């Protein structure tokens, strides 16, 4: 499990063979970056208290303004953002390779 983002300004985690950092931008906003500095998405608090009396987080994909994922499990949301970005990169690499 990743360390709490509510208690830390920066949290490092490993996922799919790479390292990533969740960095606090404001009281309820974070950016998710790969260790090489590339932005993988962002995380925000959608509601301070949901059905389970925990904050509800929203994950925002790179280039988007609306949340793509929402829920109280911020760790799964962050991993989902990383997966989407990695899968998009894999798809563009396949397309580029197939054009030659």
The major beta sheet can be summarized as: 6 strands, antiparallel
> How many discrete domains?
1
Distance between the termini: 42 Å
Series of H and E elements: EEEEEEH
Instruction: Give the class from helix and strand content and strand pairing.
Output: alpha+beta
Q: What's the oligomerization state? A: single chain
Mean pLDDT, all residues: 88
What does the radius of gyration come to?
A: 14 Å
pLDDT below 50 for ≥5 consecutive residues: which ranges? 95-100
Please give the share of residues in helix: 25-40%
Please state the overall shape, judged from the principal axes of the Cα atoms.
Answer: globular
| Strand segment tally | 6
- Treating each run of at least 4 consecutive H or I residues as one helix, how many helices? 1
Q: Biggest sheet: strands side by side, in what order?
A: 1-2-3-4-5-6
Strand content: 35-45%
């Amino acid at each position: 499990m990743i360390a709490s983002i509510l208690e830390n300004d920066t949290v490092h985690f490993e996922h799919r063979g790479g390292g990533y950092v969740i960095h606090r931008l404001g009281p309820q906003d974070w950016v998710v970056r790969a260790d090489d500095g590339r932005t993988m998405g962002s995380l925000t608090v959608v509601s301070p208290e949901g059905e389970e009396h925990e904050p509800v987080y929203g994950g925002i994909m790179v280039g988007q303004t609306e949340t793509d994922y929402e829920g109280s499990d911020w760790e799964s949301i962050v991993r989902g953002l990383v997966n989407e970005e990695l899968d998009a990169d894999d798809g563009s690499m396949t397309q580029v390779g197939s054009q030659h």
